[in-house]
Amino acid sequence: MNPVPAPPEGTAAGRQRLSIPPGRLIVLSGPSGVGKDTVLQELFRIAPWLHYSISYTTRPPRPGEVDGVAYSFVDDAQFQALRDGHQLLEYASVHGHWYGTGEARVRDSLERGQDIVLKIDVQGAAWIRPRVAGAVFIFLLPPNPEELRRRLTERATESADSLELRWENARIELADQDRYDYRVVNDDVPRAAREILDIIERDRPRADRP
Ligand code: 5GP
Questions:
Q1: Which of 91, 131, 190, 200 can bridge 100 by disulfide, Cβ–Cβ 3.0-4.6 Å?
Q2: What's the CATH code of the domain at 162?
Q3: Is residue 146 part of a domain?
């Protein structure tokens, strides 16, 4: 009788054989200017095993932004091709530009038992919520609305128009906070990052932790 071939790694059967727990999808949202990028930078410093989903966007790069690091920058036609080719897990128009999460990388990470963080807006989160079981939804809040307004105003990269649009969108985003599993206040970056890590680590199997 022929021996049964071992299931390949990365498949559900392979994972079971290797006792690798499936990865978790971690969704982080929050209004523009709340400090998502800074908190995520600190989170990845203290938890380098976490993975990050680099989104596609049609927004032009800001000074210093490198293609393939903060975002994969694409034009409208490329974005449409990704969307029409069903290569996006979710997508949304935010501040007049398209943003979307590549599905393959997310799926690959989860199948390998890796946790992957998505930094997406409330529309994207609303789309994922009923479709991905076990995902964790975290909303990052400013200490108070005045502080958010101040941070948005300070953002030198924004034009006056874009600032008003972002302020209006921030108020819309804040209205969705109760739909999230956890709300974290960004009163202090290391503290907020630690709180997010604690949420991610809570009640999870530890077999794949260093
Ligand atoms: P920014 O242009 O300031 O980097 O991001 C603007 C907004 O787009 C942020 O609220 C961010 O969370 C959201 N965003 C970034 N990538 C994605 C994505 O792939 N999908 C969705 N739905 N929103 C995204």
A1: 91
A2: 3.40.50.300
A3: yes
